Amino acid sequence: MTKVLLIPEWGDEHYAQLKKRHPGVEFIEAHGLGDVDRHIVDSDAVFGYLTPDQFDSAKSLKWMQVLGAGMESVFTRIPQIAQSDVVVTNGRGAGAPIIGEHALAGYAICSRQSACDCERCVSPRRTSI
Question: What are the φ/ψ torsions at residue 15 (nearest 5 degrees)?
Answer without folding.
Answer: -65, -35
